[in-house]
Amino acid sequence: MIALDFDGVIANYGDHTTTTRINTGLLALLPRERQPVAICTNQGGMAFSRRNPARYPTPLQVAQRLNAGRNFLTRNGYPVAAIFVSAYHPKADAADIQRVAQELRELIAVIVPAWRIYTTERARKPHPLMLGAAGATCYYGDSPEDAQAAQAAGIPFVAVPRFL
């Protein structure tokens, strides 16, 4: 299964707390044979959303963005089979990580039937845990940590120009 990073690949990286734009150019990079995909994304910034909502997305914003991306991919023949999210951030309070992870779990359960929200460092990219859980055979990403995660998982990496 193809796995896709979210911010900068499916949706915009910049101004992501106020605007969601979808990267329609991604379709040209995906295989012509339509197939289900998985989303594997770090969303550790959520843990800081109470303190700085202008810079970091809330769990509700993350869920809304993921749903917009899921709708876009599904409409274009790439149904999202699963979503894997790391809510962990190395500089965040453990209690804040757990709180936002629980909020996101409640929101994401209505978006896609197969999902997992992780709260530990071993699940955060560049660790390969999410890619393994997704059964990824290829990973599309826009950052060095995405490339490192694919390498650690032993799968090909497709570099996507960061969508701002």
| Sheet with most strands | 6 strands, parallel
CATH architectural label: 3-Layer(aba) Sandwich
Give the averaged pLDDT, no decimals: 97
**Beta-sheet strand percentage?**
15-25%
- CA-based shape: globular
CATH topology: Rossmann fold
What would CATH call the homologous superfamily?
Answer: HAD superfamily/HAD-like
Any idea what the radius of gyration is? 14 Å
Give me the secondary-structure category. Answer: alpha/beta
Please report the first level of CATH classification, the CATH class: Alpha Beta
| CA-CA gap between termini | 26 Å
Number of strands: 6
Number of helices, counting only DSSP H or I runs of 4 residues or more: 4
Helix content: 25-40%
Helix and strand run: EEHEHEHEHE
Low-confidence stretches: none
Number of domains: 1
Q: For the largest beta sheet, what order do the strands appear in spatially?
A: 4-3-2-1-5-6
